[in-house]
Amino acid sequence: MAIMLWLCLCLAAITDEAMASMAATTECVDSRGIMPLVINTWNFSNATQNAWKQLSIGGSALDAVEIGCSTCEREQCDHTVGWGGSPDENGETTLDALIMDGPTHKCGAVAGLRRVKDAISVARRVLDNTQHSLLVGDLATNFAIQMGFKEESLTSEWSLKTHNDWKASKCQPNYWQNVVPDPKDGCGPYKPVKGHVPQNTGQNLVNYENHDTIGMVAIDRNGSLAVGTSTNGLRHKIAGRVGDSPIPGAGGYVDQDVGAAAATGDGDIMLRYLLSYQAVEYMRQGMAPKQAGEETLKRVLKKYPSAMGAIVVVDKNGKYGLKSLNNYFYIKLMGIVLQAPRVLTLSEAFHTVW
Ligand code: SD4
What we know:
Layout: H1 2-13, H2 16-20, E1 37-41, H3 45-56, H4 61-75, E2 95-101, E3 107-113, H5 119-129, E4 134-136, H6 137-146, H7 157-168, E5 179-180, E6 191-192, E7 214-219, E8 225-231, E9 252-255, E10 259-265, H8 267-270, H9 275-284, H10 289-303, E11 309-315, E12 320-325, E13 335-339, E14 342-345, H11 346-353
Parallel strand pairs: 3-4
Antiparallel strand pairs: 1-7, 1-13, 2-3, 2-8, 5-6, 7-8, 9-10, 10-11, 11-12, 13-14
Helix pairs in contact: 3-4, 4-5, 9-10
N-hydroxy-L-asparagine binds next to strand 10.
């Protein structure tokens, strides 16, 4: 009976009427107090809804985050997820994705995946069909082909134009430092300058034009947690660069006994702090999701006061918190939470939760 009631409420949640009704207040809790949830970074509502539909028909959290993230890959969300976006310095789009399962603590990830569009599903194959956690580059492509995925170009008209415009503007901006010729004034190839001292330039290339990884956390009706991420990384990245998104503990992390987190933003900086792992560990020590997110990001700010990034933190009971560095999440509509039957934009969530 409880399951039936749960199902009814959840199915109601995905009707247009319910989606539009921000005033609905009934919560989708079963008799064990489990509150299913989908939450993701940025305003990728089709991804959220497709993940939610999966939960509503009794699907697992793991399936929900795969379906949610692959929705964005297909839609090429903001040109920053999926094929045809964020060309690297050679003009190629490569993909990073991670999927992690709470109950088994297994994960599957791909980094620098070339010529295959379905990054999160390839990551899922790593999780399901291997004992490994992370495959990279061309060899990840070979694995994907063996698993039945199609090999095809990831270049789009948009990525081609973006790359050509960048070349025409003397390869600005770029991520080089301590090299000659001066990377602020021209394209490579570059050579290292001898005897430089490592420095934090404070340069920030992650901004409105260059962001929007999907990071998604789901809780299903059995209370199982999962997290997924998918991105094509940073625009004009140096070929071979991998960010935080496919790295367990950095782009996403889940501990079934505690909760989960997913991060978005300047992955070169953020992965140095293993932000998602840290947020979950803070919750293990007793912090609420909101405080865990805050404390985690404070660590970044100490050394990188102008860093751009954000984190979504969820405890195993479905309480969530969102926190961004330097108003990163305020750049535009930040994301979506679906905790049936109420749809909450993250901007609203900020007001109600933070
Ligand atoms: C990366 N963290 O590759 C990703 C980019 C991102 O919002 O999240 N942008 O560094």
